[in-house]
Specification:
alpha/beta; Urease, subunit C, domain 1; TIM Barrel; 7-stranded parallel beta sheet; 4-stranded mixed beta sheet; 17 strands; metal ion binding; isoguanine deaminase activity; Metallo-hydrolase_Enzymes; cytosine deaminase activity; metal-binding
Length: 433
């Protein structure tokens, strides 16, 4: 049998070195050193890290690349971003939303990002963005897994048509039930929305992903209700709470009660470091809050934590580039996750942990998994985060879908080397990766 692809001399995230990865029929058929056989294409990883693809489990693709339309967010705040999105929504067209989303997917593939969960606003009665992203989902399916969340951006109860539009969106084929309880008019309405939305998900057999407590208010505690409803309805493992930023301001005693409840319910946590760090703490002078939920403490309770990109060049965030290593890098710094083990976790937070959130099948580097790989210009996961390493090859189902030259600088310095490879600066000591 002639294989589709062999990647030789790969380093793997678990620390194994000198591994050959063989792909046939779009699946990994062997992972072993010194493998014999022929393939239509052979890639020499030269000891560099080979990883399963990056995953973004929290994004807003209906707004991406809309920076400057119809104006800029001059304050840079969350609330102005929401207001600006309200101005932009009536101006959207199916074609423009789809084209921006497709362009973003092109960028994502080039960055080794091959699975995205995106929230899509359902508070526009036209459901224009829903239909556009359903079209995009079909078009990108050969090279990118796209999940859609029915997101009542203006509030499930606060927006008059949101309840009906959410049901319509799910009927059209949107995958996941979303919500934004802290944006309802009252705390009581927020809690009611969590209950109602979880019941819809239970009835339809769907997952839940809620923007939950994206606020500096320590009394915003909808994650407590979300955890309770998850247990009541038997949704364990199917529910994610995104952002959870109010936890950075909560009383420590209350947090000590809340964290075990989240763990018991099996609710996934999705912080979004790039966006949270710039949008939260805007009313603070000094000391200024960091805008990230309690990642260290959640890890101690075994809660699955995945980092999301959230936004890219849109009303809320004018930066971004579909680079999940950039997300991991920010999460590491803001969360002060600087032990070797914690830095290694940051790589998992944009790969395997996110795969758990999305419920992806066939993800990984084991025999039988999908032939989806990224060859990185780095020796191990920590170095990949440190360098935000170049994606040398991106492979989907055994086919190379993107190639990027190695980042090598040429020097003109007397008595010094002629070139510099940033990956060559990896520590040589016997460190744990």
């Amino acid at each position: 049998m002639v294989l589709d692809l062999i990647v030789r001399n790969a380093g793997l995230p678990d620390g194994r070195e000198g591994q050959d990865i063989a792909i046939a029929g779009g699946k990994i058929v062997a992972v072993q050193p010194g493998m014999e056989g022929e393939a239509e294409r052979v890639i020499d990883a030269d000891g560099q890290l080979v990883s399963p693809p990056f995953i973004d489990c929290h994004f807003h693709m209906d707004a991406t690349l809309s920076l400057g339309l119809p104006r800029l967010n001059t304050s840079g705040t969350l609330l102005e971003g929401i207001a600006l999105w309200g101005e932009l929504k009536p101006l959207l067209t199916h074609e423009a939303v789809a084209e921006r989303a497709l362009r973003y997917c092109d960028l994502a593939v080039s960055q080794g990002l091959l699975a995205v969960r995106t929230h899509v606003d359902i508070c526009d009665d036209r459901l224009l963005a829903v239909e556009a992203l359903l079209d995009v989902k079909r078009k990108v399916a050969p090279y990118l897994d796209l999940q859609l969340v029915a997101f009542p951006q203006d509030g499930y109860f606060r927006s008059p048509a949101a309840a009906a539009n959410l049901e319509r969106s799910l009927d059209l084929g949107v995958d996941i039930v979303g919500g934004i309880p802290h944006f309802e008019r009252t705390m009581e309405d927020g809690a009611r929305s969590v209950r109602a939305l979880c019941e819809i998900a239970e009835k339809r057999g769907l997952m839940v992903d809620m923007h939950c407590d994206e606020t500096d208010d320590p009394l915003s505690r909808h994650i407590e209700t979300l955890a309770a409803e998850t247990v009541r309805l038997g949704l364990q493992g199917r529910v994610a709470g995104s952002h959870l930023t109010s936890m950075h301001s909560m009383d420590n005693y209350y947090a000590s009660k809340l964290l075990p409840l989240i763990a018991e319910a099996g609710v996934h946590a999705i912080p979004n470091p790039l966006i949270n760090i710039v949008l939260q703490g805007r009313h603070d002078t000094y000391p200024k809050r960091r805008g990230l939920t309690r990642v260290k403490e959640m890890r101690e309770f075994g809660i699955n934590i995945a980092f999301g990109q959230d936004c890219c060049m849109d009303p809320w965030y004018s930066l971004g580039g579909a680079d999940m290593l950039d997300v991991a890098h920010m999460g590491l710094h803001v969360g002060q996750l600087t032990s070797r083990e914690a830095m290694r976790f940051c790589f998992d937070a944009v790969t395997v942990n996110s795969a758990k959130v999305m419920g992806l099948h066939g993800y990984g580097l084991e025999v039988g998994c999908n032939g989806d790989l990224v060859v990185l210009q780095a020796r191990n996961p920590i170095e990949a985060v440190r360098l935000r390493a170049a994606r040398l090859f991106v492979i989907r189902r055994g086919k190379v879908v993107s190639e990027t030259p190695a980042r090598i600088a040429k020097l003109s310095l007397d008595g010094r080397p002629q070139s510099v490879d940033p990956a060559a600066y990896a520590p040589t000591e016997n460190l744990t990766y």
